[in-house]
Amino acid sequence: MAAVQFWEVDMSLHAAHGANNLLITTAPAADADNAAAIARDHFGIEAEVSLLTSERDKNFHLVAADGQEYVLKITNSAEDPVVTNFQTEALLHIEARDAGLPVPRVCRTVDGRTELALPLGGETHTVRLLTYLTGEPQYRAPPSAPQREDLGRCLARLGLALRDFRHPGATHDLLWDISNVGRLRDWLPNIGDTELRELATGFLDRFEDEVRPVQQRQRRQVVHNDFNPHNVLVDPANPVRVTGVLDFGDMVETPLVNDVAIAASYQVAGAHSLVRAADFVAAYHSVLALHAEEIDILFDLIAMRHVTTITITEWRARLYPENRAYIMRNHPRAAEGLRAFAAIDRDAARRVFRQACGME
């Protein structure tokens, strides 16, 4: 009976969210030989190629004969080309606004294009080549207050670089946008742990009743929307310093505070969860000042990121069990974070965030 329940949930999600078809579409049918040929024929690069782990696209690591490294991205055919171009143009915009930000650079083809539309496996895919960023994935490095502060400053700089960026693809429909968390209610049954499911339901109820009206009137802009420890690189010799920000695939126009909450949610762990999150928020605020109303809803928005992560990853892991380890990589942290927040007084959390930002 459980299997039928999950199947029905999955199919209704597909029907209700056609714009999110790439969440239920397999990755492109491309291998290292395809990638090597594309690099040679279209970018003029002879390279050694290896496959990188990815959830919905095909990404390849290229090491050219001259030692330069790149990432060849073959985008899922279910993704609207306008959305793919949105990501490409955003990277170009960031480079123009703040060239010191450690984000991938867009490489051009031999005839000057930033994107290609190529047939692979019977479907047409958008292909791009980006520079490869080096460093230690943040999740492997020891956490510290100085690291949290550098993370906060880095994301704030990214927000400043993107604040005047406009694109037709910016408002695309994305389930990973916290603003859409209410649409996940019907899929809460996918959460196998009863206690966790009840916590998620309770936080979602409060969010829709009390927080959403406040969130909807906050300033909006394009944001990274997935600033997590798997998408951030740090200096192996000095792990408090951010050296790379990866994966702009979940970018969207949304309330700016959502971006802060998403990143802060990955600082939530253990007995000092609120202090860790406040370190990050204060550093962000020192570069890009938050409004009082934004700070006051951070606690609930962080919880909503945990609910989103738990719900979507459990659903997708059942849909693609062969890729379960990758899909569920952030689930344990989200479950721990939601449980930690359940033990924290909401008003006390607001005071902590306000004090960290010098508002009390």
- Identify low-pLDDT runs: 1-19
Gyration radius (Cα, Å) is 20 Å
How many β-strand stretches?
11
CATH superfamily of the largest domain: Aminoglycoside phosphotransferase (APH), C-terminal lobe
- Mean pLDDT across the residues is 90
Order of helices and strands: HHEEEHEEEEHHEEEEHHHHHHH
Please give the largest β-sheet: 6 strands, antiparallel
Write the layout of secondary structure elements.
Blueprint: H1 2-16, H2 32-43, E1 47-52, E2 58-64, E3 69-74, H3 81-97, E4 106-107, E5 116-120, E6 123-131, E7 136-137, H4 145-162, H5 194-216, E8 220-223, E9 232-235, E10 238-245, E11 252-255, H6 256-265, H7 273-287, H8 292-296, H9 298-319, H10 324-327, H11 331-342, H12 346-356
Antiparallel strand pairs: 1-2, 2-3, 3-6, 4-6, 5-6, 7-9, 8-11, 9-10
Molecular structure report:
The chain has 360 residues and is α+β, with helices and mostly antiparallel strands. It is built from 12 helices and 11 strands. The chain folds into 2 domains: 17-131, Phosphorylase Kinase, domain 1; 136-356, Alpha-Beta Complex (Aminoglycoside 3'-phosphotransferase, Chain: A, domain 2), CATH 3.90.1200. It has helices at 2-16, 32-43, 81-97, 145-162, 194-216, 256-265, 273-287, 292-296, 298-319, 324-327, 331-342, 346-356; strands spanning 47-52, 58-64, 69-74, 106-107, 116-120, 123-131, 136-137, 220-223, 232-235, 238-245, 252-255. Helix 4 crosses helix 7 (273-287) and helix 9 (298-319) runs antiparallel to helix 11 (331-342). The model is unreliable at 1-19 (pLDDT under 50).
